[in-house]
Amino acid sequence: MGTKLRLMMAVFAAMCLALAVGCSDDDEQITSQRSHIVRFLTSTHVPRLVAEEDKESSLEAEPPFYEKLNQDLYRYVANYYDSNRSSRTMVDKGDQGSLTYTAYIFRGGMPRVDNVYISNDTAVISQLKQAGLNAEYWSAEPLVVTLGESNIIKGVSQSLVGCRQGDQVEVYMTFEEAYEDKVVGIVPHKSAVAWFYTIDAVVKK
């Protein structure tokens, strides 16, 4: 075997090893983020939540619960039990929604104002300014998204489907459903994030 061929094989083996290690690290990080999200939702979240599949066995008449939309995406609708909720417009793929939202870096506990990385909620923007943080370039205009078309992180887009106008939603996601491997603003690389939003309006496609 020639020296050149042996060198190429050695380089290829090193690349494969580096890729395997990188994938293993990502798997561990995602698994950890999933665990932290579920632990938070079922222990220190206020109110404490049960998984959707466990709500029927709860002793509460209307137990607050979270939905696991997929392995990396968890949704809580705070006003799920509102008496008139079923009469409000539901969001489907292709519909346009108008949101008031706040996005947080999720660090394992209840998101705080110092974890905010973007918001259009005037109350949150005011809190940030009072805390001495720079939010002067943030717009308080509603975020208008068209499901399937708008440039918005996939976790938020997926979480909107099945919600209704007026819903107050909390969505928690691993980096896979957020920014994946991208570096975005002040969000630490491969961070779990949480989006809190209210659906102010829905326009059907």
- H/I helix tally: 3
Give the DSSP E fraction (strand runs of 2 or more residues): 15-25%
Low-confidence stretches: 16-22
Helix content: 25-40%
- Summed over residues and divided by their number, the pLDDT gives a mean of 89
End-to-end separation in angstroms reads 64 Å
Biggest beta-sheet profile: 8 strands, mixed
The dominant shape is globular
Instruction: Provide the succession of SSEs.
Output: HEEEEEHEHEE
Number of strands: 8
Rg from C-alpha positions? 21 Å
Class inferred from helices and paired strands: alpha+beta
Description:
The chain is an alpha+beta fold. The protein has helices at 3-44, 122-130, 154-160; strands at 50-51, 65-70, 73-77, 96-105, 116-119, 143-146, 168-173, 193-203. Strand 2 (65-70) and strand 3 (73-77) form a beta hairpin. The longest helix has 42 residues, at 3-44. The protein starts with a helix and ends with a strand.
